[in-house]
């Protein structure tokens, strides 16, 4: 059974590498035709994830019809682009299991990735793969644990098996709201932590921001329908910890630049 990853950014590429490393037949779709052709020929995504050669079982394509023949589609599309992509490809995504691999809320609707999928692709099964992870770590084969949240219990169990690899441990949850919110809210706290460090306020200040920020995340998420234990897991506390303490985090790095008064190249 082939799994398709739609979106050839760093995270989508890393997932494709991890899955294909196990011998899983994997299709990686890129919107840019030239970029797709280069990756297929050179067996590397030098634009987004340089230094990680593709296993032989990855097929790179720009053909959306070919990519969506798989029953399981991982959508590694930015949160602000997800709704538009779903509307564009509504026919191709119909009756598929769709796994959002992005974090954040759609600024135009305030919907999370799963809610966005459900709204725009009502005949599909929506899910989200989220948690503390960097694309570089996944591509290197370093151990990483993620949350797979899906309200359809049978589909979630199947996805847990499909997406687990020798370096990806997938934990299953039915709480899609909590998983969505954990991945979105931690970004705000990460910026604040970065600003504290950038401004020279010290590690103690960062710890305070993380702790009180986490308390606010829990209260807000519960008010919006999330289960408390979800925010205590990988998609909440785990993701918060990683994002608030590593220079690999774009949000933390942005906060650091903000605290220093420096410019930031997004």
How are the elements arranged and paired?
Blueprint: E1 3-6, H1 10-21, E2 26-29, H2 33-42, E3 44-45, E4 49-53, E5 58-61, H3 64-67, E6 72-75, H4 79-88, H5 90-93, E7 97-100, H6 113-120, E8 125-130, H7 135-140, E9 144-149, H8 153-163, E10 168-173, H9 176-198, H10 203-223, H11 228-231, H12 234-243, H13 250-260
Parallel strand pairs: 1-2, 1-6, 2-5, 6-7, 7-8, 9-10
Antiparallel strand pairs: 3-4, 8-9
Helix pairs in contact: 4-6, 9-10, 9-12, 9-13
What would you note in describing this structure?
- This protein is an alpha/beta fold.
- It has two domains: 3-174, Rossmann fold (3-Layer(aba) Sandwich); 179-260, N-(1-d-carboxylethyl)-l-norvaline Dehydrogenase, domain 2 (Orthogonal Bundle).
- Helix content is 50%, strand content 17%.
- The chain has 13 helices and ten strands.
- The chain has helices at 10-21, 33-42, 64-67, 79-88, 90-93, 113-120, 135-140, 153-163, 176-198, 203-223, 228-231, 234-243, 250-260; strands at 3-6, 26-29, 44-45, 49-53, 58-61, 72-75, 97-100, 125-130, 144-149, 168-173.
- Strands 5-2-1-6-7-8-9-10 form an eight-stranded mixed beta sheet, with helices on both faces. Strands 3-4 form a two-stranded antiparallel sheet.
- β3 (44-45) and β4 form a beta hairpin.
- α4 packs parallel to α6 (113-120), α9 runs antiparallel to α10 (203-223) and α9 (176-198) packs parallel to α13.
- It is globular, with a radius of gyration of 18 Å.
């Amino acid at each position: 059974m082939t799994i398709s990853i739609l979106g050839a950014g760093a995270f989508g590429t890393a997932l494709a590498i991890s899955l294909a490393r196990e011998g899983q037949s994997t299709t990686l779709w890129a919107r840019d035709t030239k970029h797709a052709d280069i990756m297929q020929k050179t067996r590397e995504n030098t634009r987004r994830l340089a230094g990680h050669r593709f296993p032989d079982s990855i097929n790179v394509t720009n053909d959306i019809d070919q990519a969506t023949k798989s029953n399981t589609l991982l959508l590694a599309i930015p949160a602000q682009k997800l709704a538009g992509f779903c509307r564009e490809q509504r026919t191709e995504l119909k009756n598929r299991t769709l796994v959002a691999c992005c974090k954040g809320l759609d600024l135009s609707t305030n919907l999370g990735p799963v809610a966005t999928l459900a709204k725009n692709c009502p005949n599909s099964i929506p899910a989200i793969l989220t948690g503390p992870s960097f694309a570089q770590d996944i591509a290197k084969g370093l151990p990483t644990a993620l949350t797979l949240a899906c309200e359809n219990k049978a589909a979630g169990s199947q996805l847990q098996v499909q997406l687990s690899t020798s370096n990806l441990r997938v934990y299953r949850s039915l709480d899609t709201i909590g998983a969505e919110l954990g991945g979105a809210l931690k970004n705000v706290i990460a910026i604040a932590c970065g600003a504290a460090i950038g401004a020279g306020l010290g590690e103690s200040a960062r710890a305070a921001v993380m702790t009180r920020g986490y308390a606010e995340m829990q209260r807000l998420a519960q008010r919006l329908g999330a289960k408390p234990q979800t925010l205590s897991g990988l998609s909440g506390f785990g993701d918060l910890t990683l994002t608030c303490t590593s220079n690999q985090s774009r949000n933390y790095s942005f906060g650091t630049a903000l605290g220093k008064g420096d410019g930031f190249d997004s």
